[in-house]
TrEMBL record:
Organism: Variovorax guangxiensis
GO molecular function annotations of the record: 3-oxoacyl-[acyl-carrier-protein] synthase activity
Domain of life the protein comes from: Bacteria
Enzyme Commission no: 2.3.1.41
The keyword NAD is annotated on this UniProt entry: no
Enzyme type, top EC level: transferase
Listed name of the protein: 3-oxoacyl-[acyl-carrier-protein] synthase-1
NCBIfam families reported in the protein's UniProt record: PRK06147.1 (NF004798)
Keywords from the named record: Acyltransferase, Transferase
Length: 350
């Protein structure tokens, strides 16, 4: 895989309305749970990681506003670059919740894209743009699609935007019925949240117009876990192990060469057990300590936007010099068993 670079990132989360603010908050372990208008199974107001928006938007309008705020953070610097190649229509890959998500909002596969295009006010490529309704793994699939576009010389840059919110009554009811929400009576659960993230991806020839260091995706791997969280099958971590091995093989690396790891783990025991099983099956012999970051501790479970937060965190760590090593292995999991992993490495001097 010829590396493609993530040259800029934008975030809108409950702990920051920019990538810099969010990553600083995550590094400091800041969290911001607040009471919602929803009542949990115990009769108490449900706590969630809510984005402090200037207006009380709801539903799809709220997603549009969050997505546009995140995208603006990477589009504004792009407009200042003099290269004429950057003035061409920009492909946009919009990552949203998976289609079988309980309580999924209407219009995520069509209306949301059209509404976001109007708000962004930049020319988007009509045929190379699209929606990726694949949940947590969506950003990785969008990166793979961006790589294909750049390899075919159809685009020199691609904008990936991910936006999601679990703060929907039907969604919370479904997860609450399965005892998956964190509460006083349930320590094995997650805090629901909402967020948006934007990643600007560039081909090697277009990377020099942007600040360094950048992070380059060296490999992407895929897997499927038969013992998903909704089954009673014994968990062996086979799907995630397969995804990790595929990413490492593509990058030409062994697991012991990974500097640190970032994952979409949201606090549920299932995810940590799976991650440990997959990692242990790939490690052989003596190895150095590998730190594991899981930003959901601070921003909550934000669905399709979770992997964008992980990628932005890796970029911030490379630029600010607090990465504990290089490269970084980033992994994501969907409830239906789909797994992805990426090997990402810093490029250029800090």
């Amino acid at each position: 895989m010829s590396p493609i670079a993530i040259v800029d990132a934008g975030l809108v989360t409950s702990v920051g309305l920019s990538a810099e603010a969010t990553c600083a908050a995550i590094r400091a372990s800041v969290t911001n749970p607040t009471e919602t208008r929803f009542v949990g199974g115990d009769g108490k107001w449900l706590l969630a990681q809510q984005v402090p928006m200037p207006e009380p938007w709801r539903g799809r309008a709220r997603l549009v506003e969050m997505a546009s705020m995140a995208a603006a953070q990477v589009l504004a610097p792009r407009m200042q670059v003099a290269s004429q190649a950057l003035q061409a229509p920009l492909p946009l890959l919009l990552c949203v919740a998976e289609q079988d998500r309980p309580g999924r909002l209407e219009g995520l596969d069509d209306a949301l894209f059209a509404e976001l295009e109007v708000v962004l006010g930049v020319p988007l490529h009509p045929s190379l743009s699209g929606v990726v309704p694949q949940g947590r793994v969506g950003v990785a699939l969008a990166l793979a699609q961006a790589h294909r576009l750049m390899a075919a010389r159809e685009a020199s840059q691609v904008l990936i935007v991910a936006v999601d919110s679990l703060l929907v009554a039907a969604t919370l009811d479904a997860y609450g019925a399965k005892d998956r929400l964190l509460g006083d009576a349930n320590s094995n659960g997650f805090v629901p949240g909402e967020a948006a993230g934007a990643l600007l991806v560039a081909a090697p020839a277009a990377r020099h117009d942007w600040p360094i260091p950048q992070i380059a995706c060296l490999g992407i791997g895929y897997g499927n876990e038969p013992a998903s969280i909704d089954t009673d099958l014994p968990l062996r971590g086979e799907g995630l192990m397969q995804a990790m091995k595929g990413a490492l093989d593509m990058a030409g690396l062994a697991m012991a060469q990974v500097g640190y790891r970032i994952a979409t783990l949201n606090g549920e025991q299932y995810g940590f057990k799976e991650f440990d099983l997959a990692t242990s099956r790939l490690l052989r012999g003596r190895h150095e300590f590998m730190d594991l970051w899981h930003p959901a501790d601070c921003v909550g479970e934000v669905g399709a936007a979770q992997l964008a937060v992980c990628m932005a965190m890796a970029l911030a760590a490379a630029r600010k010099g607090f990465a504990p090593g290089d490269p970084v292995l980033i992994a994501a999991s969907n409830d239906d068993g789909r797994r992805v992993a990426m090997v990402v490495s810093a490029q250029g001097d800090a």
